[in-house]
Backbone:
């Protein structure tokens, strides 16, 4: 996993240089790891594509785990200026493919199972909404709200169930938050 | 506009959880352990005394549709003769924390004790740890109204050496002087096709009926040369479930859908009697 990440850094560096839309970001939570770092490329004003590594240490509610991510973010052009150099970017939506590395999870089906018995348990899809505060042309700080694949599917199938039991149109039951910082070179 | 957007985001921020990954294991599901539900059932038995008849609702495979599962539970709540619910596994689809928490929300709407067994999907990811923490044992048994119910784990791809045949035989044994009407086993998966001896083993051990899920549709079968019936309950997506009526000398199974939504006439009569008593007691 680390080799792939290093390879991505090298490709990004050699193809695009450190300017021209390359960005790095650090994040915590929103189901991307307790700590998550990513490197990516902004190929227009609105589109970001990145790859990252996340880590969760051994905790009472979580096994130690690393994870790899591939993300796409659409960042809307709307800016609300709040002070000199500072603005809010309210419309940022994205998706991430995360692949966890742990012996209890699998990407390819272990031998004991018949073909196609399960989908991979280590591979999950997240859907994001980010509320970002931007400073100048280079810095973004954001709150990330993410929804897991099964969360989105369940919410679409049975919105009344989530409305019944959770606040904010039921979104409380499927959404998890995190915070992050993005720097554009 | 900025303030409204900010306040909305802040509100969502305070409502939802900070979660480091989908694979956290600290599921919030108070009051749903097997131990707590068995205590509720014991209290019910003590309050009602000896019964010549009661019913058991058999629900299974609520994964991916917690709302339909909750609706099914609410239907069962209206059936006065149902004393408890057997939940035959696959509460979750991928074994992650969120799925268990949604199902737990639905289970908390039950007015009746719920006794679950683990399904193969529940054991995925870190589901085994979650199950042990939230619900408790993978194999357990209990007695109710002189019948014994034996729940066991038979998810052979996820666990080694299951089901535990020695333990199953031990649970079916009737002690000297014990009054036992029926011995009923329940698990997620019916005996596998390549395990032709298990049904015969269970019959020889003394089981009268086996209840399972996993197949998502109603079924009832027994092997050609074994008389032990295996009943399969469907998933709850369409609010279907099995209904087991237990008499001292008889077990009756019904496939339930909308036709089971209304209380039976006998239950209505009981209500009428109570109403008449109340009316006549008034001055």
Residues:
């Amino acid at each position: 996993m680390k080799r792939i990440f290093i390879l991505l850094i090298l490709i990004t560096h050699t193809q695009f240089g450190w300017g021209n839309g390359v960005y790095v970001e650090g994040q915590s939570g929103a189901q991307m790891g307790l700590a998550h770092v990513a490197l990516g490329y902004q190929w227009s004003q609105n589109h970001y594509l990145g790859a990252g590594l996340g880590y969760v240490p051994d905790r009472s509610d979580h096994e130690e785990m690393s994870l790899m991510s591939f993300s796409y973010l659409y960042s809307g052009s709307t800016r609300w200026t709040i002070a000199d150099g500072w603005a809010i970017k309210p419309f940022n939506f994205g998706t991430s493919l995360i692949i966890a590395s742990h012996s209890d999870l699998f990407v390819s089906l272990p031998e004991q199972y018949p073909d196609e018995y399960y989908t991979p348990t280590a591979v999950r899809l997240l859907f994001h909404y980010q509320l970002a505060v931007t400073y100048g042309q280079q810095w973004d700080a954001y709150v990330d709200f993410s929804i897991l694949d099964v969360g989105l599917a369940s919410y679409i199938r049975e919105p009344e169930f989530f409305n019944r039991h959770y606040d904010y149109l039921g979104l409380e039951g499927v959404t998890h938050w995190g915070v992050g910082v993005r720097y554009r070179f | 506009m900025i303030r409204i957007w900010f306040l909305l985001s802040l509100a969502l921020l305070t409502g939802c959880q900070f979660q480091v990954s989908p694979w956290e294991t600290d599921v919030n599901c108070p009051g749903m352990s097997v131990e707590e539900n068995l205590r509720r059932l014991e209290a019910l038995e003590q309050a009602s005394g000896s019964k010549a008849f009661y019913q058991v609702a058999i629900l299974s495979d609520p994964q991916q549709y917690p709302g339909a599962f909750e609706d099914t539970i609410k239907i069962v709540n209206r059936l006065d003769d149902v004393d408890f619910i057997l939940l035959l596994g696959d509460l979750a689809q991928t074994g992650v924390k969120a799925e268990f928490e949604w199902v737990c929300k639905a289970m908390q709407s039950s007015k009746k004790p719920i006794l679950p067994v683990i399904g193969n999907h529940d054991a995925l990811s870190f589901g085994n740890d979650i199950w042990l923490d939230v619900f408790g044992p993978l194999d357990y048994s209990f007695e109710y109204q002189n019948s014994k119910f034996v729940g066991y784990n038979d998810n052979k791809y996820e666990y080694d050496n299951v089901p535990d045949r020695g333990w199953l035989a031990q649970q079916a044994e009737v002690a000297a002087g014990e009054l036992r009407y029926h011995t009923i086993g329940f698990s997620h998966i019916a005996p596998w096709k390549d395990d032709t001896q298990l049904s015969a083993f269970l019959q020889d051990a003394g089981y009268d009926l086996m209840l399972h899920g996993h197949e998502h549709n109603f079924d009832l079968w027994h092997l050609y040369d074994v008389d032990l019936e295996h009943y399969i309950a469907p998933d709850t997506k369409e609010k279907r479930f099995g209904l087991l009526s237990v008499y001292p000398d008889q077990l009756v199974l019904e496939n339930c859908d909308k036709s089971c939504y209304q209380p039976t006439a006998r239950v209505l009569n009981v209500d009428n009697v109570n109403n008449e008593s109340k009316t006549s007691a008034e001055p």
About this structure: The domain at 2-184 of chain A is CATH 2.40.160.20 (Porin). The helical segments of chain A are 2-16, 149-157, 159-165. The beta strands of chain A are 22-29, 35-42, 47-56, 65-75, 80-83, 86-101, 123-135, 139-148, 175-184.
